[in-house]
């Protein structure tokens, strides 16, 4: 049966006519779509969808024309649809990724704020001289020898007071060793003492 006869039979639901057209155009359409996608597997999916649409719309076929142009048009439109779908999927994934990143940043910021508050509570509970020495060293960046000179005390006393401060801070953050490491890195930056 020639193409015109196959189209007429197809419009009546003849599956053999559909098979004949499928076998004639399937590989040609895959090759055509692959020039756009550069992916044979994706092209095969698009062409399969093309033939599903072709079957579903068989009543629209012109009985006096070859189905070739119609098939190529459907295949190209399915390719464009898949391209738009991929772009929408990429945008959705981008939005999900950005939201996850924002949530993580917010979570990290909130945790850091809680840890800074905890550090403030612990340091506020230190004896006044101990708190002053800790502040001078960790916030102002003054060395032990200079602290001793400014306060008129020995370097050993400064060291002793710093040891007391670190012990109290460690006790306050017993369950969170990493936090202690992070906080002392941020301690100067926070300047909350």
Automatic annotation (TrEMBL):
Identify a single GO molecular function assigned to this protein: DNA binding
Domain RNA polymerase sigma factor 70 region 4 type, first and last residues per copy: 120-163
Q: Name one Pfam family in it.
A: Sigma70_r2
RNA polymerase sigma-70 region domain span: 21-89
One biological process term from GO is: DNA-templated transcription initiation
Q: Which domain of life is it from?
A: Bacteria
Q: Which residues form a coiled coil?
A: none
Query: Which keywords label this protein?
Result: Sigma factor, Transcription, Transcription regulation
Annotated family: Belongs to the sigma-70 factor family. ECF subfamily.
PANTHER family, A to Z: RNA POLYMERASE ECF-TYPE SIGMA FACTO, RNA POLYMERASE SIGMA-70 FACTOR ECF SUBFAMILY
What's the protein name?
A: RNA polymerase sigma-70 factor
Q: Which organism is the protein's source?
A: Cerina litoralis
The uppermost taxa in this organism's lineage are:
Bacteria, Pseudomonadati, Bacteroidota, Flavobacteriia, Flavobacteriales
């Amino acid at each position: 049966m020639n193409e015109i006869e196959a189209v007429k039979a197809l419009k009546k639901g003849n599956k053999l006519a559909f098979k004949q057209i499928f076998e004639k155009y399937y590989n040609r359409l895959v090759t055509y779509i692959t020039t756009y996608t550069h992916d044979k597997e994706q092209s095969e999916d698009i062409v399969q969808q093309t033939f599903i649409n072709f079957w579903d719309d068989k009543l629209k076929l012109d009985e006096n024309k070859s189905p070739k142009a119609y098939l190529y048009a459907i295949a190209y439109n399915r390719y464009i649809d898949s391209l738009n779908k991929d772009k929408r999927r990429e945008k959705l994934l981008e939005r999900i990724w950005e939201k996850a990143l924002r949530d993580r940043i917010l979570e990290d910021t909130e945790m850091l704020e809680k840890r800074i508050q905890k550090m403030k509570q612990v340091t506020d509970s230190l004896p006044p001289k101990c708190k002053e020495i800790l502040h001078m060293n960790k916030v102002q960046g003054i060395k032990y020898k200079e602290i001793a000179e400014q306060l008129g005390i020995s370097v050993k006393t400064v060291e002793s007071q710093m040891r007391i401060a670190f012990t109290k801070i460690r006790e306050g953050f017993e369950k969170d060793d990493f936090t202690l490491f992070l906080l002392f890195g941020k301690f100067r930056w926070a300047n909350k003492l």
